[in-house]
Specification:
Structural class: mainly alpha
Largest sheet: none
Shape: globular
Distance between the termini: 41 Å
Strand content: under 5%
Radius of gyration: 22 Å
Number of strands: 0
Order of helices and strands: HHHHHHHHH
Length: 336
Amino acid sequence: MNSNHETKLTSAEIAALWTQYLNETAGLCFHKHMIEHLEDKEIIDVFEYAISLGTEHLEIIKEFFISEGFPIPIGFTNHDMIPNTPRLFSDALCLHFLNIMSIHGCHGYSGALTTSARHDVREYFTSCNASSIELCNRTKNILMEKGLYYRPPVVFPPEKPDFVKDDNFIAGWFGEKRPLSCIEITDIYFNLKKSIMAKAVTVAFCQVTQTKKVRAFFLDAVKTKDSHIQMFHDLLNKENLPAPPTLEAEVTKSTTSPFSEKLMMYQVGFLFSTAMVYYGTGWASSPRRDLTPHYMMAISGDVKIGNDWMDLVIENGWLEQPPLAEDRRELAMKKK
């Protein structure tokens, strides 16, 4: 890290490192609870790998912050995890969770890499990206070996390449509606998988939360995700395409919380905020006009939950503030 000592970290680099610190500390709390109860040796091994990665990443991020004089974020600590509580998730759900989170990691680290300038920061995020790809591959391999991975639908090859000839390609409400393209199917399918995971995790949190306001929020979040799941499931069903199954049955009957309210709220906020990004990508990649209102409805639903989430975490003092730009007006006023 010394080769770039005179070059200060940019706002983009601080943002990426700060956000990763919070995500890693949250992830470690979930992984430590899950590994307490895992029974399958292969799944235990991949969780041990994930925990080692998270621990290593935190130490490196601390070095970056200390060298720049930035305070270490609080994030989440052992106080946010309650040990020796009953298991909340089955082995299968834990594995699905880790796979989905590794996908988020692949996307997040790629974005951090492209917005970073300093060589040492880019090297770090390149390493993170490689390890998240490794984690994604390992979790997916185990899911496939155990018959738990739900493959996207198969599309048979056309006779020859072709070009769009008329407006039927973008029609959706009127005229002859064409089948979904492979691009549209992929976005719908993987948005559906992420919504299924978000709903299952939020259902689990509903069972164990001890606060009425938080429980009411989680119930609204479950209702919102359920509507999204039904909407995207119907889209595939109308095209005679298979959809992945839901995962709520993989949540145990425990009503004892292994996590703090702050940590559970953070995780739900993360899942809903990232969903908006993926919905936006799906919308932008879908020329068929009837898909637009579906994505708009999904995004608006998540925006509503996001606003309620913001009010609740601020009210409870659970929202850690990222580093801000200097308030030049306040600095100038100090001179009077």
